[in-house]
Amino acid sequence: MAFSEANYYREFKRVRNRFRRHAPVDLVLRAIRYANGGENKLENCRRAPWLMMLMIKWVLTDENFGHCGRPNATNQQTDTLFQEAYELSRWTRMPNEYENLHLFMRSVAHQQFMFQKDFSYADFARQFVLFADLDDGHRLSRAFSDAYGLEIEQFLTLSLGLVGKYLRGNFEPVRQHWFSTLAIPDAARIVPVFFSALSATPEQMREFLLENGTRQRAADEYVEQTPLTAKPFLQVGEEYWPVHVAVLFRALEHYVYDQLRAIDPEWFMQSFGKIFERYVHEVLAPIHARIYIEDELKRLRTTPGKVVDFLADEEGANIFIDAKGVAGTHEAMVTHASRTLRNRTKAAALKAVVQANELLGAMVAGEMAEGGPPLKDRNILLVVTYKDLHLGNGTTFEKAVAPADIAEIYQGRSAASSIPLDNIYFMAIDSFEALCGAVMYGELTFSDAIAQAQAADSDAATKKFDFRQHLQEMQVAQRIPAVVRDRVEEAMNSLAEGLGADVS
């Protein structure tokens, strides 16, 4: 049967009518315990934790939430409810109902990959450099402290302590007094404020979800990435229960970015775009290659035109690099329609392709002053985003997202002035950090890495979904850049002083 929103909603109502029979807070706690109840991470993933997070959302935002007197569910009733929720997947879009199979894979990855990852110190620690070191008067710093009553440094330091508690793999609630074991300045004031930022009572969680969503139950909600990363703890009395340890880790890894961006994405990017570009330059700077930066490339052009943020003059190849400090919206990450994804990514992905090809065209036409980057037979474009947009390489992007736009960009260009589509890769900052680390230590070159990725992607049996998988295949380690490592070690040592330990 072909997908329809009407059929999906009809079947959803069966699930809704079942959970309405039972006490809502008890059901929420049962979903939390079930999602976290496996013996290890793999077992927890088999419990479809993304679906349990959605169940929590459904129960808390239901219009009957406040109706009292309903009995707690039995174990059998809970199992039946969860099974019916799982079977609702039969009424969502099937893979062949997406305009391209890659779009289906993106929606699954966006929802489920977050539960498969270990905690990323690289992602978490990067926030110290990107945000905690901003001047106190910077508008992003002010916005965060105004919203949460904490300085960014304070929030991240407390988060660092919390990570240590849950890295052991235990699932248990935490109380505020747990932080009493650490010597934290002004703890009596900032610890309650910290938990207030990360947690909500069931009633508060309901209010938060309704303010930031809708009661309308559309089918794309079934593949959403849980919004509970904004409130990863459920407060019950004096205890704070993590809705899922993976949700807590993903929340802490990007909390400052996510919450500042949630205020107003356009306002946020007006400041963060340049912050992110500077950071990408810091990551890139230690490699053993001549790096041209945007302002330099603009000065070297003898005709007006576009350039990229960086160009690395590597032996045998020019590496065009454009930094886009973006993350995908819900609509962009779960859409079944190429046009929707194209519209949501044109300011990042398509713009980078235009800029790189225009710069290469100027180089080929001799429109660069003396001292500009030399022409090379091999030209590569890396588009670096803050979070992974799961766009793959240029060939996948053309087929799945923007065939007409790519055709227009390349129309009339000679082969020498065009970057081949299979030489274009989109990657998140963590993959770029790892790649730059491998290049810096002489383990491979940018060109080597892209050649290996191209070889894998040329065969459906070995094709990778994102660049992180290529790096894993190449056995490239996820190194934390020195600028981040040195900065977070300061925070770790400061936190450990209260325990009389040196964690460096």
What does this structure look like?
With 504 residues, this protein is α/β, with parallel strands linked by helices. Helices cover 53% and strands 8% of the residues. It contains 22 helices and eight strands. A hairpin with a 2-residue loop joins β5 and β6 (317-324). Mean pLDDT is 93; it is low at 500-504.
Portion in helices? 40-55%
From N to C, what is the helix and strand string?
Answer: HHHHHHHHHHEHEEHHEHEEHHEHHEHHHH
Quickly count the helices: 22
Gyration radius over CA: 24 Å
Determine the N-to-C terminus distance. Answer: 59 Å
Mean pLDDT: 93
Strand order of the largest sheet: 4-5-6-7-8
Number of strands: 8
**Could you list the spans in which at least 5 consecutive residues all have pLDDT below 50?**
500-504
Approximate strand percentage = 5-15%
**Global structural class:** alpha/beta
| Shape field | globular
Largest sheet: 5 strands, mixed
Summary tags:
3-stranded mixed β-sheet; 5-stranded mixed β-sheet; globular
Concise synopsis of the structure shown:
This protein is of the alpha/beta class and 504 residues long. It is built from 22 helices and 8 strands. The termini are far apart.
Write the layout of secondary structure elements.
Blueprint: H1 5-19, H2 24-35, H3 41-46, H4 49-61, H5 75-87, H6 101-112, H7 121-132, H8 139-148, H9 152-166, H10 187-198, E1 199-200, H11 202-211, E2 233-236, E3 239-242, H12 245-263, H13 265-284, E4 290-293, H14 294-300, E5 310-314, E6 317-324, H15 330-334, H16 338-364, E7 378-385, H17 394-400, H18 403-410, E8 424-428, H19 429-440, H20 446-457, H21 467-473, H22 482-496
Parallel strand pairs: 1-2, 6-7, 7-8
Antiparallel strand pairs: 2-3, 4-5, 5-6
